[in-house]
Structures are given as C-alpha cells and as structure tokens.
C-alpha cells in the first residue's frame, strides 16, 4: 500500500506543511488616494482611485510600471516558475489546425506550427498548400492579430480585419484573392463588425464614431453605424445604411442571404434581444423593412430558399426554435414552426441543403440533421460527451467539417459527408496527452435556494479524494453564454500535478435557455455567486479538496464572479484569479460599450433598489479593511477596450490596502494585449506559467 505522502510525490505535488517555506516579502507601491465622491440616491460613495481610470495619464503609467515590477519580482523568487514555463512550452509545441472552409477554388485553413505567436492562414488547391496570410509578419512582437476574414461569394475578393495590441478597434484591408494585391485604401476605426459582401462591388460593415483623442480605449461608444463601402472609393464617402442619429442603436450588424437576395440587419441596445430588418436587394430602391421592432427576444435569419426565410428565434420559445416565413410579409404573426422548441437549448446551422440542430443537453452537445422541410434525418454520432461546433457550410456543399472536444478529448476535426451522415477523422490533435489516463464526470449539486446546478469535474485516474488536491473552480454565469466542455492544454499542468479542474454551469449562462439566463441577471445576480459558492462547498464536502487547496478562476464577467465571491466569502478560497473582470459595478456603463451590459446587470442610475443591489456586491466596493483575503493574482491588459483595465486597477489597489492577512495581492498588466482575443502565444505561456506557479506556491506545494 502506498502511503499518502508517497502517492502525492508520485502525482507531483508535495505539501510543505511542517517544512520551512521561503516567505516572499511583499512591499506594494503606494497608491495615492483622492477625495472624489459621488452621490447615488442620497448615498455618498467614495472613489479614491478614480484617477486610475485615465489609462493614458503619466501617473497611471507609472503605477502600472511599479505594480508590474513588484509582480515580476515576486515570480522571480518562486523556484519552480521557470520549470512550469518550460513544461508548458513543450506541451504547446505541436501543430494546431482550424476547421477548413471553402472559398472559390480553394480550401482555406489556419495552422500554427507550434509556438508561432499567431496562427497562419493557408490555402490549398489540388493537394498543394501555400501560405495565404501570415499575421506573424504584421508586427515585430506578434501582437497584431487577424481579427476576421470574409470572402466575396465567388471567393475572388477578401476583406480581412487586423487588431493591433488586442484592441477591439480593427482595420480592414481588401485583397484580390488570386494574387493578394491590395484594393483601395485601408478602412480604419472599425469595431464589433462583420463584413457582408454585396457581389464583388463592395460590402457592409459596422463601427462607432471614434472617441476623442486620449480616450480611444476607454471612451463611451454608443451609436453603432452600418455602412456600405464601394470598392475603389474613399472610406469618407461610405454610405450610412442604418444606425447613427436617425436610428440610434448600440449594436448593428448586417448579413446577406447566400443567394444575395436579401440584406438582413440586426439591431440591439444590449447583449440580449434584437430587432430584425430586411431589404430586398433584387428590387432596386426597395426600403429596409422592419420584421421585429422590439428588443425583447433574439432572432436571426439562418437561410432562405427563394422568398422563404428560415429564422432562429426564442420568441415564445425560451430554448429556441426554427420558423419559416415569406420575406414579403415576414412579421412574427406569420411565422410557422419548422423545428419546435424542446427542453434543450438550440443553436442551428445550415449547409448542404440541411439544417443542423445543435442542442445543449446538460452542457454537452447533441446534433440532429433535418431536411429543409423540417423532416428529421438522423442524429449525428459524436465521439462521446463533449462539445461539437461547426456544421455551417454553403448550400451546394456535399461535405463539411466540424470539431469535437471535451475536457479530456483534445480538439479534433472531422470531415462529415452530408448525404450519408458519416464522420471521418480529418485532423487529430498532436498534443502530448493520453485521454485514457484521465476522467471527467458530471455531477449535480444543490445551490442555496435549492436549485440543482451541473458541474463537470476532471482529474487524473486513480486520484485519492483526501481533501488535499489542488483544485481550480472555474465559472462565468452571465450573458446567456454556455460553458460546454473544451480541451485546454494549459490544464495538463494542473492535472499532471494531481490537481482537479471543475467547471460549474452557473445561472446567468445559457445552458438551460432564457429562463436559466434571466435567473442570474439584475436583481437575481446573487444567484450566480451563490451557485459558485455552493460548487466550492460541494468540492470541499466531498473531499475533492479543502479550503487550503481551492482556487477560484474566471475572466471578464467571470472576473466579476471571482471578485464578488472573494469579497463575500474570503475564507472559502486559498487563491483567486480574477481576469479582465468587471469590478466597479457603479461605473461600468460609462466606458466603451459597457452600457450594453445593462440587460444583465442593471445600472446604478436605474433606481435606488438597483443601485443598492449593485453597491452591495460590486467587488471594488464590497472589500472591507481588516479582512484576511486569499492570495490574489489580478490580470488585465493595457489595450483591453472591452472591460477597461481601470476595473482591475481599482480592485487591486483596494485589495492591497484592505488585505489584513499575509497572502499576496498582485496585479499583472500585459502591454500590447487586450481582452484576450489574438493574444500572442509567448504572452499566453508567460501568463499561464505565472498562474500555476502562484497557485502552487500559495498552497504550499512543490512542483515536480
């Protein structure tokens, strides 16, 4: 029989209890406090770190430099931090492919040879591949990424977007696909936009007026505008199609049906609910006709056959359904159900003359194939319980590609023959990972109010449930976003050290449809935090881990989750990782597109009840002096213009001031990086190595 101590050595981690652990002395930079105060419904709220909201000010830049210096000094003293980085670098060094797609005579796909900062776009014809676009040549440090690729219908023209330093603001460059020669000028100041080609003459795109100089990354962006750009003309001459002062909307997007018959416009003021408009492009001078004119539900046109539109909607169907209607009279009262609502959440796609109904059943994928008349053909056989994505293709395609993944199934690409329903392996992951050595299981735990919540727990087979396993609890819980199983190479480090990775499917997400989402919004947001706390309690009660070996992790809205639960239950976690989090709930709506999040959060200006509720859980405001908080590593980036870094700056400064224990409070601010998309591989490796080193060290564990 192997002793507990020896079994832990074999798994790689050895508790340091009873052993002398080097204590890293912390001296934080002095963060000045000002006397700024605001009054909300007769409540006076101090905001002493308001000055950190100006991310371009010299004193803010100096603060960032000082904080980063303290953080880097701390990591330099963790003896195994570089060993973790070396191991992670080896794990990441394998070829990675994207799902292929067909344009014109070519098949396009992205590939990363292993450690390239950005994946390279290739194209293939007659078995011969060539580099088409290499984003690694866009900038010296790899921080400029490819943010979008859209071809004209015949594949002869391409408009691609680039993001500099991770910003949501992009530039659009147009090419002849044949020889990659540039057409016209580069479009600038584009944000939250797709590209919808109208023949080969031009395309539709969306953007905002650029904020004034000095606040480009944090200034409020309110009115989205849909433009038409005609090739060969100046951007200044682009025609405003929708939005702006006449029809002010916060988010506007456009798409064309594949036959180029109809322009479809979606308009919204928040992240949930949208209007729908249609224009008949085959009738010159035709008007833009409203189909849905409220913002209550979500709707999108997924296909058409002549004048027959196929629409996905959750109107009178919280889990979603597919309806049909004639484009000439497309109001909701004329919609006819084609694929009715079920108890599972639907995300449909079309291709090859079929509808692929991708359902989420208890956070895993089930995919059904339908004919365009709504007749069910069959269920697509997937490799196991996990997440299947893709299935969208052109109407005339005979086959398509999809990906499948889970927490223990590395992302794999399959080629699917539509007529036969047969899946063939196309690209297997080259990561050094044997799924047979690991297991992933789903449990349901009970939250504070009695709600059953699913959680998937992943670990190495043979793990002893002794309460001493280093565990990460990950969550999001917002914006109707579903956390479905996906493989993450970074987690191999944790699993191979005898660790556990647990993902809770909290209310506020989309795993069980609109009702599940709404149960975690506005005055019900506390349900999300209660669900997360109950997940932690389950892991502790069932001996997966204990408070001394449990870390909380989440990003963006998940960063808010980590910050709020840290403030509410500082005793529950040993380590906390709030990444790019929304931390100031009283002022979030005053930056960039933050006002669009009010559907989930509400705002401090809505009512006294809403203000009181936000003020109570807002991480920046919920921290209290004299409390022993967990070891905390806050992460953000200087070019994050979605959740501006001021949130993390103010939270870190407050937590450093209030921390009564000896656990470190660090903030790592990456430069030339944004909210996460397009992050160079080298920066990702550094960030992940820091995270695991910080966690193991503060749990008193050695890395083997």
Tell me what you see in this structure:
The two termini are 22 Å apart. The protein has twelve helices and 39 strands. With 704 residues, it is of the alpha+beta class. It has three domains: 4-13 and 26-90 and 433-696, Alpha/Beta hydrolase fold, catalytic domain (Rossmann fold); 97-212 and 221-256, 7 Propeller (Methylamine Dehydrogenase, Chain H); 342-430. An eight-stranded mixed β-sheet has the order 32-33-35-34-36-37-38-39, sandwiched between helices. Strands 3, 4, 5, 6 and 7 form a five-stranded antiparallel β-sheet that branches. Strands 8-9-10-11 form a four-stranded antiparallel β-sheet, with no helix packed on it.
Which labels suit this protein?
704 residues; 3 domains; 5-stranded antiparallel β-sheet; Methylamine Dehydrogenase, Chain H; alpha+beta; 8-stranded mixed β-sheet; Rossmann fold; 18% helix
């Amino acid at each position: 029989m192997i002793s507990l101590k020896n079994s832990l050595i074999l798994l790689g981690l050895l508790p340091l209890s009873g052993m002398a652990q080097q204590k890293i002395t912390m001296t934080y930079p002095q963060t000045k406090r000002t006397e700024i105060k605001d009054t909300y419904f007769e409540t006076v709220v101090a905001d002493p770190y308001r000055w950190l909201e100006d991310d371009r000010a010299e004193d803010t830049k100096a603060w960032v430099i000082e904080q980063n210096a303290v953080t880097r000094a701390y990591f330099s003293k963790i003896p195994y931090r570089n060993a973790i980085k070396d191991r992670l670098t080896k794990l990441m060094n394998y070829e990675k492919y994207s799902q292929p797609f067909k344009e014109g005579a070519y098949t396009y796909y992205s590939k990363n040879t292993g450690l390239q900062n950005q994946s390279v776009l290739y194209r293939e014809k007659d078995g011969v591949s060539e580099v088409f676009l290499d984003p690694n040549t866009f900038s010296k440090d790899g921080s400029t990424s490819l943010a979008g690729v859209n071809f004209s219908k015949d594949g002869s023209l391409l408009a691609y977007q680039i993001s500099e330093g991770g910003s949501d603001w992009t530039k659009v460059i147009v090419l002849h696909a044949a020889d990659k020669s540039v057409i016209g000028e580069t479009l600038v100041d584009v944000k939250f936009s797709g590209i919808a080609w109208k023949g080969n003459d031009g395309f539709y795109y969306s953007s905002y007026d650029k904020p004034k100089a000095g606040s480009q990354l944090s200034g409020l962006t309110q009115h989205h505008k849909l433009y038409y750009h005609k090739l060969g003309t100046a951007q200044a001459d682009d025609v405003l199609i929708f939005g702006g002062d006449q029809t002010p909307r916060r988010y506007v997007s456009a798409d064309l049906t594949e036959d180029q018959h109809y322009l479809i416009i979606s308009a919204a003021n928040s992240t949930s609910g949208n209007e729908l408009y249609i224009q008949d492009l085959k009738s010159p001078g035709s008007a833009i006709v409203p189909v849905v004119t409220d913002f209550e539900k979500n709707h999108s046109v997924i296909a058409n056959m002549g004048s027959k539109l196929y629409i996905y909607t959750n109107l009178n169907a919280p889990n979603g359904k597919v309806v049909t209607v004639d484009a000439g009279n497309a109001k909701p009262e004329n919609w006819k159900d084609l694929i009715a609502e079920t108890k599972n959440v639907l995300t449909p796609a079309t291709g090859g003359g079929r509808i692929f109904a991708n359902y989420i059943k208890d956070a895993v994928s089930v995919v059904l194939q339908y004919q365009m008349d709504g007749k069910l053909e069959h269920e697509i056989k997937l490799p196991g319980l996990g997440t299947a994505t893709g299935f969208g293709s052109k109407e005339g395609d005979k086959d398509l590609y999809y990906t499948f993944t889970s927490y223990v199934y590395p992302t794999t690409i399959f080629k699917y023959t539509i007529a036969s329903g047969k899946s063939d392996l196309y690209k297997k992951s080259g990561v050094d990972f044997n799924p047979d050595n690991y297991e992933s299981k789903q449990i349901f735990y009970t939250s504070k109010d009695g709600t059953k919540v699913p959680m998937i727990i992943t670990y190495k087979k043979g793990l002893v449930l002794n309460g001493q396993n280093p565990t990460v609890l990950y969550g999001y819980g917002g914006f109707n976003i579903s956390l479905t199983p996906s493989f993450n190479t970074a987690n191999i480090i944790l699993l191979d050290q005898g660790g556990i990775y647990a993902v809770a499917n909290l209310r506020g997400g989309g795993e069980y449809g609109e009702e599940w989402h709404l149960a975690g919004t506005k005055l019900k947001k506390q349900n999300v935090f209660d669900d997360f706390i109950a997940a932690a309690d389950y892991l502790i009660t069932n001996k997966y881990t204990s408070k001394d070996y449990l870390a909380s992790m989440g990003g963006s809205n998940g960063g808010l989750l980590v910050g709020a639960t840290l403030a509410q239950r500082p005793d529950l976690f040993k380590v906390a990782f709030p990444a790019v989090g929304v931390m100031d709930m009283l002022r979030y709506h005053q930056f960039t597109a933050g006002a669009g999040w009010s559907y989930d959060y509400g705002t401090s200006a809505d009512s006294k009840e809403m203000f009181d509720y936000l003020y109570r859980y807002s991480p920046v405001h919920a921290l209290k002096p004299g409390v022993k908080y967990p070891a905390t590593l806050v992460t953000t980036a200087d070019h994050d213009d979605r959740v501006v870094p001021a949130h993390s700056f103010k939270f870190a400064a407050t937590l450093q001031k209030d921390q009564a224990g000896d656990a470190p409070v660090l903030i790592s601010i990456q430069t030339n990086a944004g909210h996460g998309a397009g992050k160079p591989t080298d920066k990702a490796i550094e960030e992940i190595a820091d995270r695991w080193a910080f966690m193991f060290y503060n749990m008193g564990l050695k890395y083997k």
